[in-house]
């Protein structure tokens, strides 16, 4: 693999998972809530992100 590129992606029909709580295309939060609807939800008071200087791009 040259150029540090991702391998080609495969496509497939996703109809079989539509509307299911265990749909592998759902994000982790939605999947967890789908199986545990009685979980308490919390709102975080602040969201922090690292400054750009904390994650410099690697030299090529």
Give a quick summary of the entry.
This protein has 60 residues and is low in regular secondary structure.
General description of the model:
The protein has one helix at 28-35. Helices cover 13% and strands 0% of the residues. The mean pLDDT is 80. The radius of gyration is 19 Å and the shape is flat. The longest helix has 8 residues, at 28-35. With 60 residues, it is low in regular secondary structure.
Provide the fold topology.
Elements: H1 28-35
Which band does the percent of strand residues land in? Answer: under 5%
Element pattern in H and E: H
User: Largest sheet, if any?
Assistant: none
**Overall 3D shape:** flat
Mean pLDDT: 80
The class by helix and strand makeup works out as little secondary structure
Unreliable stretches covering 5 or more consecutive residues: none
Determine the number of helices (DSSP H or I, runs of at least 4 residues).
Answer: 1
Number of strands: 0
Query: Approximately how much helix is present in the residues?
Result: 10-25%
Radius of gyration: 19 Å
Which key phrases capture this entry?
60 residues, little secondary structure
